[in-house]
Specification:
With 56 residues, the protein is an all-alpha fold. Helices cover 52% and strands 0% of the residues.
Length: 56
């Protein structure tokens, strides 16, 4: 029987080496990205509603 490695627990997972330090986060950049993502969600929602309405 072959032993399979167990998955690490949440408290054992280490951040990737390319992860930014929390102190170096640009708040303005995050707010801009949040705005772009919010707009994409609105566009996606409109497409879903349109396609559901078209199928009825």
């Amino acid at each position: 029987m072959v032993a399979t490695p167990s998955r690490p627990c949440a408290n054992e997972i280490k951040p990737a080496p390319f992860t930014r330090d929390a102190r170096s986060v640009d708040v303005e950049e995050l707010l801009a990205e949040n705005d772009r993502l919010r707009n994409l969600v609105v566009q996606l929602s409109k497409l879903v509603i349109k396609n559901v309405a078209d199928t009825r």
